[in-house]
Amino acid sequence: MDISRRSVMTAGSLGAIGLIGLTRPLGNDVEAKSVSTLPTSKLPKPYRSAFQRLPILQPDRTYVDSDGMDVEHYIITQRRSTAKLIPGFLTPVIGYNGLVPGPTISAEQGVRTRVTMRNQVTSDFETAHHSTDGFLTSTHLHGHASLPEYDGYANDTTPFGYYKDYIFDNFQRARSASSSACPTGRARADAASWVNSS
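Below the sequence we write its predicted structure tokens.
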């Protein structure tokens, strides 16, 4: 049996058309679980709100550590709050010191930064694990070199009521960096329940 280039191209084209055609009747369309109940008249107009500069967090204390490095120590609390993301509406958020995004830390090159991240993110409902205490959090810093133990990888969690110290040696040139608190493990179920119940 001779297989020509034309027959391979024809078979491939027919197969692709058939595959695309099958996705419609099989229900593979992407659909949202719910439609926004916000009236169109209330949707925000782009670039209409004034820019609001984030507050600059002052260190709780400064000291010289055992390595002889100057250290600025900050304490930040992850907790529930509300934010005006859309004018006229309050949105429940999990913020740093209640802010989303959190406060700004202005760190000098050559000055070590120690951030104590306290988890006070409460849970207002029963979870699959019958816990009402709070979320597990994992905090990750984007845009800055950090040692693995301070990177905030997915399984590096802080339980509700506890804290973790993050230490950053600021040897890099000036840059913007941001932290994100990522729910992990049980907290994923908590977050899904909390978002769905709002």
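Residues 5-23 form the longest helix (19 residues).
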